[in-house]
Design a protein that fits this description.
single chain, about 550 residues, alpha/beta, Rossmann fold, Helicase, Ruva Protein, domain 3, Zinc Finger, Delta Prime, domain 3, 5-stranded parallel sheet, 4-stranded mixed sheet, disordered N terminus
């Protein structure tokens, strides 16, 4: 009889381990197997580690162990007897042919509950969970609650969860899973037994992929297995997915793997960077549209993009023979900062949207600043001096007459007569932290919020400024307000009234939001400069000499 896992077409599901002995992470297997031999698992476990390393799979196996009918006597003696049982009764491996075990291992049971803390992160959800855990399991003996991405809970939710974890009912076991252990309050961590998952080693990945290849009768060399393990980057799930992807080819080679799994985006990356520095918004949109049309792997493209810029940055500090950086260190540092804030989000329905928004915002800031410089604002003209033989060209900075740049005046302002109860000042002072919180669930909205400037706070009213009417309309859309308002309420401790003003763009012709005053003018100008340009006009605002 085939289990649901065996019938699944996805190898990542079909070849999930069904016993603790099948886990490939040695340290995790050893720790959990010790609990199994004792016949008892701690009431609260905390699984911490990167994605794709087996946290959910291990949690399901524990649920199967505790609810397999053949372990009923051992579980009853260990969990429900009032007197301490001196002699331990080991738990036997779950039987995948048992209906209840099948349901648990496939995530379809009523005794093992998997909750996504990223989308159920508030105090009301934890209160509902508190009511649910009081009920005895419908089937089996022990209700297992798996809270995935538990670090996403709000502070009030963590406080409510703490009380629940301190005295859990006898028929319950909690397994918290997270990829960011440092974000979980110490009070919660202190109540848990931590199981540390790590990125799978090369040997662990090779062993896992070798077993799957053998089961699926895939003819593949050890060299190719090793390359797939490298590309998996410590993730069992990604490794098995890549193996299934190339298994349809009659002959598997390193060249095939490189072309299918790890295509080179070098040309596309070069074109994107060149278009960005040339401020060619049309070309940027065309390139990203091509990436969508051809269904390129978004995560892999981002990885190679960041690697390319990072390698170019290092060439500025660690020279390599016969290799020269394409861009200055200042430009590379700026690009790394911008691109690292637009990482792909699997929940986003439009691929490459975060990258597209980032590139267009960079170009818009540059162009709008350039227009301001042509409207009578004092500027600094930076011209290259004629280069002498065997010398690099120098830069001459020509200052115009000093003048004071006019203050930015609101063009459109949204007034509100609403009254809130939250602390708007907390939002004003912690705006970067608030946008970072939004970025965890909605990178597109976070990109819009990063383009705003918080202006002032009065009681429960927060004033923010944007440079474009389009940004204001987007932030005022029903979809984005539905995400902003609850987050603000949790952050500020109550409802906050949000007023949005459209103001003229800042008169600083550079790609960064703010240029440190200690930078010389020519370095600030380099952020806008394309290497092909011969003359650059940079509007200078309080740049110290």
């Amino acid at each position: 009889m085939k289990t649901s896992n065996q019938q699944s077409s996805a190898w990542t599901t079909r070849h999930r381990p069904t016993t603790l002995a099948e886990l490939h992470q040695v340290s995790v297997r050893s720790q959990l197997s010790n609990y199994q031999s004792l016949g008892y698992f701690p009431r609260v476990l905390l699984f911490a580690g990167p994605k794709g390393t087996g946290k959910t799979t291990s949690a399901r196996i524990i649920g199967a162990l505790l609810n397999d009918p053949q372990n009923a006597d051992a579980v009853h003696k260990t969990y429900f007897q009032e007197k301490t049982v001196k002699k331990t009764v080991p738990l036997v491996d779950p039987d995948p042919s048992t209906p209840i075990v099948q349901k648990i291992l496939t995530g379809n049971s009523y005794v093992v509950h998997e909750l996504d803390a990223a989308s159920n992160r508030g105090i009301n959800e934890v209160r509902a969970l508190k009511d649910q855990v009081q009920l005895a399991p419908i089937e089996g003996l022990i209700s297992v609650f798996i809270l995935d991405e538990v670090h996403m809970l709000t502070t009030p939710a963590f406080n409510a969860l703490l009380k629940l974890l301190e005295e859990p009912p006898a028929h319950t076991t909690f397994i918290l899973a997270t990829t960011e252990l440092q974000k979980i309050p110490e009070t919660i961590v202190s109540r848990c037994q931590i199981v540390a998952f790590h990125q799978a080693s090369q040997s662990e990945l090779e062993a896992a992929l070798g077993e799957v290849a053998k089961r699926e009768a895939v003819k593949i060399s050890e060299e190719c297995i090793a390359r797939l393990a490298q590309l998996a980057n410590g993730s069992f799930r990604d490794g098995v997915k890549y193996l299934q992807q190339i298994s349809v080819y009659p002959e598997i080679s390193i060249d095939l793997i490189e072309s299918i799994i790890s295509p080179s985006f070098g040309l596309r990356i070069d074109e994107l960077l060149a278009s960005l520095l040339d401020k060619d918004a049309k070309k940027v949109c065309e390139l990203i549209s091509h990436l969508r049309t051809e269904s390129y792997d978004e995560k892999l493209f981002y990885t190679q993009l960041l690697e390319r810029v990072h390698q170019d940055l290092l060439l500025n500090y660690l020279p390599v023979a016969d290799s020269k950086p394409n861009h200055s260190a200042t430009i590379n540092l700026f690009l790394l900062k911008e691109f690292s804030q637009s990482l792909p989000n699997s929940a986003n329905p439009i691929p490459f949207l975060a990258l597209e928004i980032t590139c267009l915002q960079i170009i818009q800031r540059s162009k709008s600043s350039g227009k301001s410089s042509n409207s009578g604002t004092p500027k600094t003209v930076i011209k290259p001096k004629p280069a002498t033989p065997n010398s690099s060209p120098e830069v001459e900075v020509i200052e115009s007459e000093s003048a004071t740049a006019p203050k930015r005046a609101p063009l459109i302002k949204t007034d509100s007569v609403e009254v809130g109860t939250g602390n708007a000042q907390a939002l004003l002072e912690n705006w970067p932290s608030f946008t970072a919180l939004i970025a965890k669930t909605n990178t597109t909205l976070a990109a819009l919020l990063r383009s705003t400037q918080p202006k002032s706070a009065h009681n429960s009213t927060l004033e923010i400024e944007v440079y474009y009417q389009f940004h204001k309309e987007q932030l005022r859309s029903t979809r984005h307000l539905a995400a902003i308002k609850p987050a603000m309420e949790e952050f500020a401790g109550g409802e906050v009234v949000l007023n949005i003003s459209v103001v003229s763009a800042p008169v600083v012709a550079n790609l960064v939001d703010q240029v440190p005053s200690s930078l010389p003018a020519q370095v600030a100008a380099a952020l806008l400069q394309s290497e092909a340009d011969s003359n650059i006009d940079v509007v200078q605002s309080n740049v110290s000499t």
